[in-house]
């Protein structure tokens, strides 16, 4: 498939997701990085977003709770190029009733070539990157060209 280039702006739109067993870790991580996160636009699944907003004072656009469709809402925003980064503290030791949604979310992040952190250390590395405050170029699947080619068949 052909690709096209797109610039991720200096002000990133970051999705924050955490399984129940990792919500406190996400809240603590956000509190540790208030200044860096405050310059970006934050999105989160419902419960996680409420906890972050309540404990940190950060402005968060809250979507549905993960099991109620929040993971899918974030996935749709990734596919529509509205989310530039995913910080997803998932609990690899706990079974999740919405596990297919979780896998779909991670797949979409890979398809649309956005940075993903699944633990605090990786999230620290992403947030401390000099690319967090500068525009960066990424390659995306060119689905418009793909659809045009398919219509020509």
TrEMBL record:
Enzyme class of the recorded protein, top EC level: lyase
Q: Could you tell me which PROSITE patterns the record lists for this protein? A: METHYLGLYOXAL_SYNTH, MGS
What InterPro entries does the annotation carry? Methylgl_synth (IPR004363), Methylglyoxal_synth_AS (IPR018148), MGS-like_dom (IPR011607), MGS-like_dom_sf (IPR036914)
Quick one: which residues bind substrate?
Answer: 19, 23, 45-48, 65-66, 98
For the biological process aspect of GO, one term held by this record is:
methylglyoxal biosynthetic process
MF terms in GO: methylglyoxal synthase activity
The catalytic activity of this protein is classed by the Enzyme Commission as 4.2.3.3
The record's GO CC annotations read:
cytosol
Q: Where is the MGS-like domain?
A: 6-153
* Taxonomy, superkingdom: Bacteria
Catalytic reaction list: dihydroxyacetone phosphate = methylglyoxal + phosphate
Arranged from A to Z, the UniProt key words for this protein are: Lyase
So where's the catalytic machinery, residue-wise?
Answer: 71 (proton donor/acceptor)
Q: What does this protein do?
A: Catalyzes the formation of methylglyoxal from dihydroxyacetone phosphate.
Q: PANTHER family in the record, alphabetically?
A: METHYLGLYOXAL SYNTHASE
What is stated as this protein's family in its record?
Belongs to the methylglyoxal synthase family.
Q: Show the HAMAP family listed in the entry.
A: Methylglyoxal_synth
Can you say what this protein is called? Methylglyoxal synthase
Q: Identify the taxonomic lineage of the organism of origin.
A: Bacteria, Pseudomonadati, Pseudomonadota, Gammaproteobacteria, Alteromonadales
């Amino acid at each position: 498939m052909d690709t096209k280039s797109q610039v991720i702006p200096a002000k990133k739109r970051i999705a924050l997701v955490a399984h129940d067993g990792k919500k406190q870790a996400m809240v603590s991580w956000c509190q540790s990085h208030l200044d860096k996160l405050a310059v970006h636009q934050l999105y989160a699944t419902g419960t996680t977003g409420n906890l972050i907003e309540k404990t940190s004072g950060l402005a968060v656009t809250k979507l549905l709770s993960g099991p109620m469709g929040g993971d899918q809402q974030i996935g749709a925003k990734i596919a529509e190029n509205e989310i530039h980064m995913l910080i997803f503290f998932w609990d690899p030791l706990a079974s999740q009733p919405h596990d297919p949604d979780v896998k779909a979310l991670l797949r979409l992040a890979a398809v649309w070539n956005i940075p993903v952190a699944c633990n605090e250390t990786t999230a620290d590395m992403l947030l401390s990157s000099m690319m967090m405050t500068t525009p960066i170029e990424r390659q995306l699947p060119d689905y418009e060209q793909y659809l045009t080619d398919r219509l020509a068949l």
